[in-house]
Amino acid sequence: MRTLAAVGIALGVGFVIILLLSDNPMESIFNFIVGPLTKFRYMGNVIETAIPLIFSGLAVSLLFQTKLFNMGTEGIFYIGGLIAAIAGITLTLPAGIHPVVAILASAVFGALVMGIVGYFKAKWDVSELVLSLMFNSILYGVGLYILNYYFREESTVVLKSVPIKETALLNDILPGTKVHSGILLAVVAVFVCDWFLNKSKLGYEIRMTGANKSFAEYSGINTKRAIILVSMIAGFIGGIGGAVEVIGMYDAFKWVSLPGLGFDGALIAMLAKNKPKNVIFSAFFLAYIRIGADLMSRLTDIPAEMVGIMQGLIILFISGRMFLQFYRNRLILKEAEVK
């Protein structure tokens, strides 16, 4: 309820800003709230936008479960999408196998890279935030170099790769939209992660490491192994997300900058309270307000940047709630020590 209250307050502040800025505020708010439901194509846009957000939210929620503030999913999304595109360009495989190989190649690479971040954290307690942000820049630079010098489409001035073979592309499953079969993979990933986190031994170790690392070590849990493995699993999921987005939505690799999808995972994980099953609803909520903001900007006088303001407010209120809860817990513990 506190999370919903934080979201509601953020939306309320956004609506007040719209009332102050728009010449026709009611039309703007209507397009923002109801617009995505007015056409089937718009609803398809919401689903398309939610697919990569689900993978990003899943990856970050697993990391947050272990109290790892790792933002490396952003770089994994970028390089993972490029690897999937390269597999789709260079390999010649049947239609049913080609996308699977492309996705697995991206996922394995993502797991290896994030495993490095996890190893440095577990072995030498290196700040995972700093290291992951550094890796984002490294992966972006390496990926851009590979794209520009080895796979660039030379017949156009736009920086993009040569076309991906059709056998590697994911099939659209809703006519009239770009909703592809990646949504099915995203839903399966959510339930697998939920089972893994709550029903498996390793999932228990990961949760205990995040809840109280010292107690977990005292109980015999290998917390270093848990940190490395959860980092690799998050990288694996992030790699899948980048691959699915590229071979599901595009016919060539077209990202000339970091897509921002990995950073969105932090907001989704916070909204979902780090619970995999809640990630679906959080991702669809964020996708919905983004499509609503896009419609509002195209049909009224309010810019699409309004959604960025609302996202910032949501993060601010949720972070404030978490900080106050942490501070309240410390006061309770201090009072208990006095007694």
UniProtKB/TrEMBL annotation:
What UniProt keywords are attached to this protein's entry?
Answer: Cell membrane, Membrane, Transmembrane, Transmembrane helix
Q: What is its main location?
A: membrane
Q: Does the keyword Manganese apply?
A: no
Where in or outside the cell it occurs: the entry states:
Cell membrane
Q: Which InterPro entries match?
A: ABC_transp_permease
Q: Does the keyword rRNA-binding apply?
A: no
Superkingdom of origin organism:
Bacteria
Coiled coil location: none
Which parts pass through the membrane? 5-22, 42-64, 76-97, 103-122, 129-151, 179-197, 226-247, 306-324
Which cellular component terms (GO) are annotated to the entry? plasma membrane
Membrane topology label? Multi-pass membrane protein
Query: Which GO molecular function terms does the record list?
Result: transmembrane transporter activity
Q: What is this protein called?
A: ABC transporter permease
Origin species: Proteiniclasticum aestuarii
